[in-house]
Specification:
Pfam families: Aminotran_3 (PF00202). The chain has two domains: about 130 residues, Aspartate Aminotransferase, domain 1 (Alpha-Beta Complex), CATH 3.90.1150; about 240 residues, Aspartate Aminotransferase, domain 2. The protein is about 40% helix and about 20% strand. A hairpin with a 2-residue loop joins strand 13 and strand 14. It binds pyridoxal-5'-phosphate.
């Protein structure tokens, strides 16, 4: 019999009833160090007092009014994003997938308004993940994502990771509207795009006129130690998708754009009942205030250094399990020699939560405000989990 919850997830047999900072408490009272943060969502940890206060204050005032009216919290968040980024304008969504949908629409509409409606092709990269909607699975195009869901939305072309020749050739096609890339691939196995490649993409887009779209749903909002990951490379996109961390656990996403890229999205071209809802934006504005602060980001970088160093020693101590540490800031991956499920499960037994990704990688995406002592405790638990996997294999 089909369960009452559609069984699209292979869930771990854990249910958490309480969270505080980087800790989660399960039904049986066991405490876990959360190095997954809801897959890079709980940027400021669980039950962060500032976020609880922002949400409660808004909840006591007004929950929802619709985008028929001005929403002051939305305006505050938009102003903060515009002030701190390349963007001139933003549209708020409830998720990363919805941000993806708008990014695709925006890129195509841009060319439509330029009287080049044939420019609809969007170039994407192997290993990418942009969500699960019909457009997002078509963008990625793998059998795993698309099997049985056709006909797929046309107009996407997937390119091999790191094949510059193929990229140049594809970008030269006259119907290319945009190039879409995650500056650090998340689901694909924590693969940072080298800075010079992001610069190369910017140059290529400048040559051809194609729009450069960054998907910073997972790697954005302070995760890499800068507010947005592309800042490390010193390049600017035309459009950027954001979600996850921006809501700190409250569903919120956004598309940020330059004036030129966003100008075709006039009244009536897009909309959302909930996108930019007062509750979400009250929390989002508080997250931005905290994460957008340089001193906060400096601390993220310091904590990231400590975690990375500890992970490098972990890899050195367990060379039969791990190959390397990769990633940026607090978006780190342990590349395993085999499928990482056993290590993730051993982590549950040791009271530490991690997230598997493709390419045999275990993701570590702790809250950005994780403490030094918690990092050390997490490393000890990861070491014990690795010991457990070795003992099981012996
Ligand atoms: C890079 C990236 N883009 C888009 C998405 C889709 O976001 P959401 O699950 O909020 O719809 C994700 C989710 O994991 C993601 O990692």
């Amino acid at each position: 019999m089909i369960p009452s919850i559609l069984p699209t997830y292979n869930r771990a047999p854990l249910a958490f009833v309480k969270g505080e900072g980087s800790w989660l408490e399960a039904e049986d009272g066991r405490r876990y160090l959360d190095l997954g943060a809801g897959i890079a969502v709980n940027a400021l940890g669980h039950a962060n007092p500032d976020l609880v206060a922002a949400l409660t204050e808004q909840a006591q005032a007004v929950w929802h009014v619709s985008n028929l009216y001005r929403i002051p919290a939305q305006q505050r968040l938009a102003d903060a994003l515009v002030e701190k980024t390349f963007a001139d304008t933003c549209f708020f969504t409830n998720s990363g997938t919805e941000a993806m949908e708008l990014a695709v629409k925006m890129a195509r509409r841009y060319w439509h308004e330029k009287d080049q409606p044939e420019r609809t092709r969007i170039l994407t990269f192997a290993g990418a993940f942009h969500g699960r909607s019909s457009a997002a699975i078509a963008a990625v195009g793998t059998e795993k994502m698309t099997k049985g869901f056709g006909p797929l939305l046309p107009g996407f072309q997937q390119l091999a990771w790191g094949d510059h020749e193929a990229l140049r050739e594809a970008a030269a096609q006259p119907d290319v509207a945009a190039i879409l890339i995650e500056p650090v691939q998340g689901e694909g196995g924590i693969r940072p795009v080298p800075d010079h490649c992001l610069k190369g993409l910017r140059d290529l887009c400048d040559e051809t006129g194609a729009l450069l779209i960054f998907d910073e749903v997972q790697c954005g909002m302070g995760r890499t130690g800068k507010l947005f990951a592309h800042e490390w490379a010193g390049v600017r996109p035309d459009i950027m998708m954001v979600a996850k961390g921006i809501g700190g656990g409250f569903p919120l996403g956004a598309v940020l754009a330059t004036e030129a890229a966003g100008a075709a999205m006039t009244a009536g071209t897009h909309g959302s009942t909930y996108g930019g809802n007062p509750l979400a934006c009250a929390v989002g504005a508080k997250v931005m205030e905290i994460v957008g602060d340089d001193a906060f980001l400096e601390t993220v970088r310091a904590r990231a250094g400590r975690l990375r160093q500890g992970l490098e020693s972990l890899v050195a101590r367990h060379p039969e399990l791990f190959e390397e540490v990769r990633g940026a800031g607090l978006m780190l991956g342990l590349k395993c020699k085999d499928a990482p499920a056993g290590f993730v499960q051993a982590g549950y037994a040791e009271g530490v939560l991690t997230v598997p990704a493709a390419d045999n990688v275990v993701r570590l995406l702790p809250p950005l405000n994780i403490g030094e002592a918690e990092i050390d405790a997490a490393l000890a638990r990861l070491d014990a989990a690795a010991g457990r996997v070795r003992a099981d294999a012996a």
